[in-house]
Amino acid sequence: MNHIALKMLMGDKGKYIGIIMGLTFASLIMTQQPAIFVGLMSRSYSFISDVGLPDIWVMDAKVQFVDDIKPLQDTELYRVRGISGVEWATPMYKGLLKVRLTDGTFQTCIVVGLDDSTLIGGPPVMIEGKLDNLRNSDSVVVDIDGARDKLGKPSPTPGAAPIPLKIGDTLEINDRRAIVAGIAKVTRTFQSQPVIYTTYSRAKSYAPKERKLLSFVLVKAKKGQDIAELTRRITKTTGLAAYSQAEFQELTYEYFMHNTGIPINFGISVLLGFIVGAAIAGQTFYNFTLENLRQFGVLKAMGASNLILLRMILLQAVLVGSIGYGLGVGLTALFGFAMRNTILAFKFPWQLLLFSGTGVSLICIFAAFISILKVIRLEPAIVFKG
Amino acid sequence: MELAVSCKNVSKVYDTGGQKVTALNCIDLDIIIGELMMLVGPSGCGKTTLISVVAGILDQDNGSCELFGENLQDMSSKDKLNFRARNIGFVFQSFNLLPSLNAAENVSIPLILNGMKRFEAERKAVTVLEQVGLGDRWKFLPSQLSGGQQQRVAIARALVHNPRLIVCDEPTSALDHVTGQNVMTMLKDVAMHKERTLVIVTHDARIFDFADRIAEMDDGHIVTVGGIKAKKLSLNSAS
User: Fold this and answer.
1) Which of A141, A356, B104, B120 stands the most exposed, by the fewest C-beta atoms within 10 Å?
2) Distance between CA atoms of A342 and A336, rounded to whole angstroms?
3) Mapping DSSP to helix (H, G, I), strand (E, B) and coil, where does residue B15 land?
4) How do B197-201 and B213-218 pair as beta strands?
């Protein structure tokens, strides 16, 4: 009876497309909105992910997330270096500084100061120039998105896109000259500010005068050293907070989850998508069953059992659910592909497929359940009513 | 004479929003195997309720109704479904063909319900459609067929699994006179044989001639049962 169920479903093309569109919409919303949410949340710790080499990040004990900089004295670096199990430890400066552009306007940028000798903590990918160029006088490396957009030079044509910065161009940071010596690719940050890399000592000269300027100490553990044990030892010895890369990412992620309105805003979008999708698809599917009630009655009169009819309705629900889910997920993937080089945050891990799949399944089960109840209660004698 | 249907003291009362409506009131009716019995009477007299009980798709409140010696009310739901699938064919007033299935697929449904494979069932359906004169239209959807052709498809569907009883509810009332006569002729020619019984509910006096016997109902009772000549006289004198 499977082919009969499928033909009944597809026979009314308007209804069939309506059900599928409802499920596609629900699936799209349940996939696209969480993908933007995941993308946005992953940006909160993208800076940590980009700095791949160190095993441990050491910082002030009160730091709550990666942008919550509470500077340390430079002497803390030497204390960390003296702890057993530490292979090496390097300083890092991270701060928000105002950069004066060629047209005289200012742009707030994330300035990162890397250890002068090793340049550890630099950008993951260099597009133009070399990281070593930072050893040249006044040199900085600028991230590509910033160079193209917020740090770009104004176009002579009004309304046209800015002219991207290139190697050799000059900026001003806190009245000091900064020469672009390289262009790098970094993961966009949460606030999408341009990122400028320079050496630790030069970054200190750019930063406003403060007694303490060391943001983080980046630590590499000796080979075979247990990371968790070493973080505990650093904390115990220095009184500072020490986290593995994953722990620091989680700390940052949890801060944004619990202290911003982002999760609740996206949660509402997803919930609304689910409710609207369930309402459209559920009601259309139920109406479809109601309109076919006489046909189910005919089958029942001719000897079709409730089990057969139940299987038919479930098959119909599974089919429209699968198509709607596939289209929704496909549209989300297309959306992500189209937005891949834009400022929009978008990340599509496999767990989202499970999430939206579960959502669409629940809608289909709900729609099939109410339809099945109607068919099971159906008196076959309905077929003799005119 | 062996009985196809034997109803004794059958009653059925509907509860419509607190109001009791007696549809069948102590009905006694025997239908012989191989005969064409028509149930006639005014609207609301209980004809449709009676064939629903006879066909085992509605349970009576009182009395017994045996079909080929079996009391359907004593059967489990599963046995009743199987019995119905094997032994009963249906022809409805509004054809009740599944609109998205073609003629052969519609006709094949009873065979599939009886466990036959789909393609074999559709092959057999085409041969039965040939018997009702629609062999060249087996691919047509119901919407592509005229009313008379749709009813012939419905008759083919009622016949395809070779049931012992065919119940027809107003099979000609949606058709014009000529088409109705043709459908009845075809129904009698193709469907009737000594092993098969037809029960037809109708108020279309133009097809009474096809009946072996006619049971006249009124107000939930069977008023008279008789041969066609007696019935014609009775109906003429009444009018």
Assistant:
1) B120
2) 10
3) strand
4) unpaired
Cβ <8 Å between A302 and B90:
yes
Residue B208's domain is classified under what CATH number? 3.40.50.300
For residue A203, what pLDDT is reported? Answer: 93
Structural domains in chain B (count): 1
Q: How far is residue A250's CA from residue A376's CA, in Å, rounded to a whole number?
A: 51
Average model confidence (pLDDT) across chain A: 88
Q: What is the mean pLDDT of residues A313-330?
A: 90
What phi, psi does B138 have (nearest 5°)? -65, -20
Q: Measured between beta carbons, which residues in chain A are less than 8 angstroms from residue B59?
A: none
Please name the residues in contact with A131: beta carbons below 8 A apart, sequence gap of 6 or more.
A119, A122, A123, A141, A182, A184, A197
Q: Is residue B62 part of a domain?
A: no
State the nearest Cα–Cα gap between A303 and chain B, in angstroms: 4
Range of the domain at B229: 36-51+77-238
pLDDT at B239 over 50: no
Nearest to B84 among A10, A295, A303 (CB): A303
